[in-house]
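Issue 218. Parser rejects a valid record. Input:
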Amino acid sequence: RALSADQALKDLDACYEAGIMMIMNLYPLTDEVDSVVDIVSRIRLLSDERVINHPALYGYVIKDEPFLHDQNAGRGLEISYRLVREYDTKHPVFSVEPHLTDIKKTSRYVDILIGDFYASATSDGVKTRTEGSVEIMNGRPLFTLIEAYSAQKDDKFPNGSEVRNNMWKAYLAGSMASGY
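Output the parser choked on:
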């Protein structure tokens, strides 16, 4: 569904009441980034001063794992980035990617990249991918998501200590923020 300004304001108000900020997802997984309907609905949202000036708005995610889902996602990401910048120059634009090859492509269209690393609790995947992502971002911010479950059928779920360990690996490798 298209995100309306009224719905965005409800979400932003709820975040504000809870004392947190929101990174607004502009494109649900099912949306095509560069469809005409999508662009029109986003222009309505981004041109609404109540939304872009809301104190709980931290930034915008323009797509979750775009190149994982579509190897030709660059055109849509570029359109989305330019669209956001046309209406809002103060909030950062994010995207999420799990693989270094995709991070390199996506990094051209974001201010802050979120590395979504599905690494085993006992592997060095978070450290290695964070280091590689920091190098790709070349001074621009990287946030790291630490998966608190396993993407592998036969892999074990990380416990609290292992999640914390991976968060520290991300910070020590250069991530500016992390979550799980």
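Fixed in the parser; the record now loads. The mean pLDDT is 85.
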